[in-house]
Every structure is written in C-alpha cells, then in structure tokens.
From TrEMBL:
It is an enzyme of class 3 (hydrolase). SUPFAM superfamilies: Arginase/deacetylase. GO terms for cellular component: cytoplasm. CDD domains: Arginase. The keyword Flavoprotein does not apply. It catalyses: L-arginine + H2O = urea + L-ornithine. Pathway: Nitrogen metabolism; urea cycle; L-ornithine and urea from L-arginine: step 1/1. InterPro entries: Arginase, Ureohydrolase, Ureohydrolase_dom_sf, Ureohydrolase_Mn_BS. This is Arginase. GO terms for biological process: arginine metabolic process; urea cycle. One of its GO terms (molecular function) is arginase activity.
Length: 302
C-alpha cells in the first residue's frame, strides 16, 4: 500500500472503563504517524470521530448484563465510522482505524464490507467478541462486534450502514484466544470457525499459526481485515487495556506475526484497538501498539 488513512475511533461506549476514547491520541503521541511515514508510506490523519451523544461520566455504562449498554451512542458512533472507512477505501487508501474500544469494529467492518464479495477477517485478541445480549456476561458491546458483523444480535446493529451480515463465519480466523464465554464457544463450534487458542500457539509456534491462517483465507477471500486488540498480548507487555487476560502473546511473537502479514500482501484494512492510556504505565501500551503497526507496515526487525 502507498497511502494510509488514519481514522481515530474515539469511542468508550462499548465497555465501562473510561479513557479508552483517549487511545487514538495516545498512539499519535507515541509517534504512530512518523513511524509509518519512515517506511515511505504517505499518511493522511483524518482526525477523530466521536459520538454526538457526549460521555456522561455518572451515567456511562449503566444497566445489567441483559441490556446493550450505551446502545444509542454505539449506533451513532458506528454509523459515522462506517462512512469514513467506506470513503477512505473509495479514495484508494488503506484504512487504519485506531481505537477506542472494540465495538468500533461494527463500523469498520460495515464500511469495508461493501468493497468485497468475500471479506476475510483475522481477529487477533484474547477474546472472541462473539457474544450477543443473551450470551454476554456483561452487556458490554465490545464483546459483541464479531457476532454482530456475522448477522447475530440486535437487528439495528446487524443492519448498520448496510443491510445484512458483513462477514461469513467461514472467512474468520481467531488468534490468541484464552477467555471465551460459553455461548461464544458454542457459536465457534457450530460454525466451525478456525480458532487458535494460546495453547495452540504455544504448541505450533506463531509462524505456523499465521501461515495456516493465511492459507485458510487467501484463496476464498478478496480482501482480509485485521482486527488487532492489544489485549491479545500478555498484560506484562500491554497493561493499558480494559480487559487484560494473563497468559498472552509476547511482543516479539506479535511483531513476527505482523511481518508475516506484511509479507503476504493480503491485508486490506486494519483496526488497532483497546489502548487505554488511563490504565497504562507511561504510555508503554501505545508505544508497543506503534511498534506493532510499524512491523505490519513493513519495518524490519533487526
Ligand atoms: N474487546 C474486548 N476487550 N472484549 C472483551 C469482552 C469480555 C467478555 N467476553 C464480554 O463479553 O464482556
Ligand atoms: Mn480483547
Ligand atoms: Mn476485542
């Protein structure tokens, strides 16, 4: 790719920990734009998207596990995000969506999907984000975007921006899984979604996992979206995130995974999500996220 559009997805509405909406700026302060430009790529920073409905600190993320928390804000935000992502692809740019909580993938996939007949998705995360309001333990919409994009869940979210499902389960690969809820496990086995848990990664090694993932997707898809949640990494590497889970990927495994994706030339869009500077230690999570993006865009590991 020679031009990257950076789209700041400043949403905190998919989960309860305030501060993840500051993630896009934490990444910019960690030198994201310069690091990509150094790789001879033109970078166009489109600024941040916010919901028109403002954060009310006292009322943020109220309700029980059966409700879709901050529903109106998530709808409103993702409509705007989908439009921006769609425009970037129309203009021939590679969209890099920086979050923000993972509910933003509802909008990014909605904006991307009209450009591909058979979109592939690599979901690099500790979580499957395959819940719906019946299976969710929390009511947090950041645990649901992949299910919604497959057509499962609230009708208005499923049909956001463009009617119908945006991805097929057979075109998804899950990498880094170690905290799946019961309903998610059922959905994965019923739909035969290719899944690499941390145990699988430890057994096979990350490079075989990435090779198998690309092999699974590359012939049957005409574009592949990478959705990378920084909680895929171990919390010792990326502590600044809202739902950390022990036993995750190392930075070096992730950098080599990104180099493999870069070298494949198959990835057509990317989300980089769940950096929360208020939970971080001296912006170290954003700095690692910037290293991850640099490797993805072609920086060689010395
Ligand atoms: N994008 C994330 N960090 N998702 C975490 C989801 C956690 C849990 N499975 C839930 O649905 O509430
Ligand atoms: Mn996660
Ligand atoms: Mn996630």
């Amino acid at each position: 790719m020679n031009r990257v559009d950076i789209i700041g997805a400043a949403t905190t509405f998919g989960q309860p920990r305030l501060g993840v909406d500051l993630g896009p700026d934490a990444l910019r302060y960690a030198n994201l734009i310069n690091e990509i430009e150094k790789l001879n790529i033109e970078v166009n920073d489109k600024g941040n998207i916010y919901s028109d409905i403002k954060v009310n600190v006292a009322e943020h993320s109220q309700g029980d596990a059966n409700t879709l928390k901050n529903y109106d804000q998530v709808m409103d935000f993702n409509e705007k995000l989908a439009k921006s992502v769609d425009e970037s692809i129309q203009q021939g740019s590679f969209p890099l969506i920086i979050g923000g909580d993972h509910s933003l993938a509802i909008g990014s996939l909605a904006g991307i999907s009209s450009h591909y007949e058979n979109l592939g998705v690599i979901w690099y995360d500790a979580h499957g984000d395959l819940n719906n309001s019946d299976t969710s333990p929390s009511g947090n919409i950041h645990g649901m975007p992949l299910a919604i994009s497959c057509g499962v869940g609230d009708e208005k979210l499923v049909n956001l921006y463009k009617d119908g499902p945006k991805v097929k389960p057979e075109n998804i690969v899950l990498i880094g899984m170690r905290d799946l809820d019961e309903g998610e496990k059922e959905y994965i086995s019923e739909n035969d979604i290719l899944t690499f848990t941390m145990t699988d990664i430890k057994e096979k090694g990350i490079s075989a996992v990435m090779r198998e993932s690309l092999e699974h997707l590359q012939d049957k898809t005409d574009g592949i979206h990478l959705s990378l949640d920084v909680d895929a990494l171990d919390p010792m590497e990326t502590p600044g995130t809202g739902t950390p889970v022990d036993g995750g990927l190392s930075l070096s495994e992730t950098l080599s995974a990104m180099t493999q994706l870069h070298d494949s030339n198959k990835i057509t869009s990317m989300d980089l999500v769940e950096v929360n500077p208020l939970l971080d230690d001296k912006n170290k999570t954003a700095q690692k996220a910037v290293s991850i993006a640099s490797a993805f865009f072609g920086k060689k590991q010395k």
